[in-house]
């Protein structure tokens, strides 16, 4: 559905104002809703000079560290194919470096303590060598693996090498064959091709420009080499929102979006964390995922709201089972198509304060002036589950069970121990959220087939407080309530 003319006018004005006030040579952005690019805009010229070629949605920019999300997805595809485990040591697959004992999960989540940058010259502005030259740099760990979050470009160089060892070809070929071509991202390449913006630095105190170098980063390329367009990056935002086209299971995508390690900035509240390749944020109770990108001459951003704007505990809160092994997740995953709006942003400047809030401002403008369509309610529940709904008691505490879609909901997810459960067979259910994620819930029946009680990970839920007929562990005082 096209946006209202008044909404596009506001978005265009916001983008133009940011370009002017931030002194951006050019900037291009797009908004994604329902897996489709619903708005795009571009302001400025590719060389930052009056009369130059105007930027548009098909102009290539370097995406920088958003490249890491493609590498991470390819690693998870290897895991799902049974060719590795996330608990494996890196040296079990790529031996012979100081990173041998770091696990693959730690590399994916920036928790391996691996040094942030290389041991050589500023790699982002210098042509790169091969893997052997990189590890001879030398490279190593700054912290014990698993201790804390420490962003590492070198760690993703290692994951790129992992892809090459397993596939027998370059990491970029793997990304192209497994992701870019199936998603029709034909304008995403390792070097600029066709219409592309020039990487530029803008002088902080004068309106003059300095070209930034463009090169092949070699072994460091998996940390930030890819170039893309607004139209292509919007397809990747749709992928993050659940439109994976069968390239990744919804369980694995949800697992990637779980917060693994908090990004701890001293003096700041915890609002960000890192999942398996993706950055995740909790902003005023709303969950987002995506990644930022920065290379000399370029800044980029991708962000998708995961909960589709549904309040915690709502009927469509976007919570999905996770884990490649079938385990459950408490994260607000987008894999089931429940994700909300997304934004992509590309600009060709090395640094500008205007980009710090522009992506979120575009999302907020869309939400404020173009509310997402509301899906009407209709009956479609399973009447056979009515015997499970209503009031239950955990000791004297009162809990209410409801059925929402295919899930049994006990209590209020996000509050206390409230959880959703999915049926895994017969009278056996599995928790999806919070305290009871992954825990079994059994429906215990009497000899006549009627429901006696619920056994949730050894806790008894009975129809009346401490029902003496429901086999309450520890027994119930024979004198009863008095």
Distinct helical segment count: 9
Largest sheet: 8 strands, antiparallel
Strand line-up in the sheet with most strands: 2-1-12-11-10-9-8-7
Q: Write down the overall geometry.
A: globular
Number of domains: 2
Distance between the termini: 63 Å
Rg, please?
Answer: 25 Å
- Named CATH architecture of the largest domain: 3-Layer(aba) Sandwich
Low-confidence parts? 309-338
CATH top level label of the largest domain: Alpha Beta
The residue fraction in helices comes out at 10-25%
Overview of this protein structure:
It comes from Fodinibacter luteus. Keywords: Hydrolase. Residues 12-361 form the Beta-lactamase-related domain. This protein has 482 residues and is an alpha+beta fold. It has helices at residues 5-21, 67-80, 104-108, 131-135, 153-167, 171-180, 230-240, 250-256, 355-369; strands at residues 26-33, 36-44, 61-62, 200-202, 209-211, 227-228, 261-262, 272-274, 279-283, 286-295, 298-305, 342-347, 390-394, 397-404, 407-410, 419-425, 428-431, 440-445, 451-456, 459-462. The chain folds into two domains: 5-369, Beta-lactamase, CATH 3.40.710.10; 383-462. It is built from nine helices and 20 strands. The termini are far apart. Residues 309-338 have low confidence and may be disordered.
